[in-house]
Amino acid sequence: MTTVCATACADSRRTFLKNSAVALVGTTFPAINFAQSTAQSPRRFNPEPGTWRTFEVTTRVDIQKAKGATRLWVPIPSVNTDWQESLVSSYASNGTTRLEDDGHYGARMLCVEFAANQAAPYVELTSQVRTQNRAQNWAHKIATQQDPATLKFWTQPTELLPTDGLVRKTALAATRGAHTDVEKVKKIYDWIVVNTFREPKVRGCGAGDIATMLETGNLGGKCADLNALFVGLCRAVGVPARDVYGLRVAPSAFGYRELGGNPASLKGAQHCRSEVYLAGYGWVAMDPADVAKVMRQETSEWIKSAQNPLVAPVNQHLFGGWEGNWIGYNMAHDVSLPHAKGPQLGFFMYPVAEDSEGRFDSHEPDSFKYQITAKELKV
Length: 379
What we know:
This protein has helices at 148-153, 165-174, 181-195, 210-216, 223-236, 288-297, 312-317, 365-368, and strands spanning 3-7, 53-62, 70-75, 84-93, 96-101, 108-114, 122-131, 134-135, 197-198, 220-221, 241-248, 270-278, 282-286, 321-322, 326-330, 352-355, 358-359, 370-377. The protein is of the alpha+beta class. It folds into two domains: 21-49 and 133-329, C8orf32 fold; 53-131 and 331-377, Immunoglobulin-like. The strands form five sheets. A five-stranded antiparallel β-sheet has the order 1-4-7-2-18. Strands 5-6-3-16-17 form a five-stranded antiparallel β-sheet, with no helix packed on it. α2 (165-174) crosses α5. It is globular. The chain starts with a strand and ends with a strand.
């Protein structure tokens, strides 16, 4: 039986000292300069807000060779802010479907159960999302009000984002000399760009285990590693920060291959971004991980300096902005999937499934099997 429903719903870049963050006290950090010139850049990168775009994103899952009864969880866009509106979602399946959330962060999901004898189990989820570019005007402060309990919530540790021990020691060293939250965040952003690096061999978007990264001194990873480290360091010095887990849905308007997605096939287009809360500015966009991605993968040569003309505009504008060719699913950590037998997730931005033999590999969409596509709607 088919169910149809709708709901409104550097060198090797390992310049980090291997034994202790204390020795970072002597590190020289780039000066804070919000008006950094990009006049020498051969390519423009300066996303500006104001124009909304509407995307329709479809995730199709076809369970292959399931062993016994199967459960499936697919993320639904559930972010609603001044830069994204999560609109209607519809779905069809020959399994038993229901809508749920994680019960803590409000991460919405489509849950599907297939009987052991179900032939060709499938589900297709389609969601519409409006999104726009973001760019912070640092010269213009606004009156901001945020519930203190909410801000405290976004400074709390999670299992993968501790805020004590080596994480706090590293954060204090990185922010030495900073007096305001803006200065602290800028120093941490620059620390991430200087000391971490994109590692293409990491599976998926990475694990986001920041304590292990610091303890081992291996600061290579992908977006869920590097932006998680940024968020964890911000929280460790009392600055509210959060990861936003989502998906690139269109090419970059600025010609950067690595900063966009192919709408015809978005397998591997998952991407985590981040935000910080700053008095006088509100929630501000951040994405140091994408700076690292441009440095490592935009050209055949690994670019080692953020001052390189190709990297500089990205480095400048991802401190306070991002391009609206991306949608956010949720901001959830330590996610316990409803009725799952497997362990909780550090974050939730991939389809997840289990059968009687255990959990499928979400990083192998061709054997899972799932496909994600998108199209921009002219509305």
